[in-house]
Model the fold of this input.
Amino acid sequence: MRYPAFSGGPGRRRGRIVGLVSSPGSAERLRDRVERAATGSGDDRVLRRAMLEAMRTSVDFDAFAWLLTDPVTTVGSSPLAEAPCLSELPRLIRLKYLTSVARWTLPGRPPVMSLVNSTKGRPAESLVWRELMAAYDVVDVASLVFADRFGCWGFLDLWRQAPSEPFSARELADLRTVVTPVTTALRRSQADTLLQRLDDADERPGPVVMVLSPDLDVRAQTPGTERVLRLLMPPSGEASPIPAAAYNVAAQLLAVEAGVDQHPPTARVHVRAEWWVTLRAARMVASGEATVADIAVTIEQISPAERMELFVRAVGLSAREAELVRLLWAGSSTREAAAEMVLSPHTVGDHLKSVFAKTGCRSRGELLARAVGR
Done:
């Protein structure tokens, strides 16, 4: 099962290239291919497919899952995946979030690590491997985290199944060379959606709600939910949309409750054009002492403050530049902003010129329209 999937071309067996061996100079070639792919623009899924294809020319893998993340909460969204167990997607996501081994949010973790290396050859220490991946003959998983000083923009898991061998130290080293260009490309793609021209004709539904069981099975949803889900992840034909973003925030709630990770169970997700929504998960009140309560996931239009925080990170504003934009949003003049920031009006003007250069905006009005939306 695939959703929205990347599929291999000729010469691949079960979606992998046969006979690739990492060699001296392979890191430079891999980075060069990925950097060329990363210059693409348009839909983030198209961009990820191109970069994944570039990686696959040098590093062999059988399956993958690549998610964008909210840069602050690190909660996943917008998955691009091809794996043998996608028919068990809610279970896969739940176990992924409840697994502490090789977790993408671990403090101080390297940008690239493998399941075999991180467990010293004992993959059964990983909950998701022990309860799910082992049944699909997964022998190793290489995990890449794409984060910079502005936040975490995504994570990628590359799977190898038997009879493949675990990822070698050289292959992991090769993959480390692509982390920076991929991170920059992912952040740029998110910034592009925030800088698009506003569309006043775009009709947007009010808040919608989905109710999930503790195992992330869908219990119920409000009438407008399916339309939003179809926009978040367009299904093929008349198939029902897969609520992957809802699964992710709900799984993060389970991770918080289990003490695995303390980031809030919320994620800001791009829908289309300049439209972003915020998903939040919360435990409902149980009907009885022995009942485990369901999980409610709300999906609503992003607030101006939430969009502003996302905007300043995605376009790469410095702390001073971000402070200035927030003061302008609050209605400050250049002189008032200078007094608040304890800077000269000339210096504030220089900061504003830098902001315009980074965002492509030509006026304060245009800047604030992009920063906070409509």
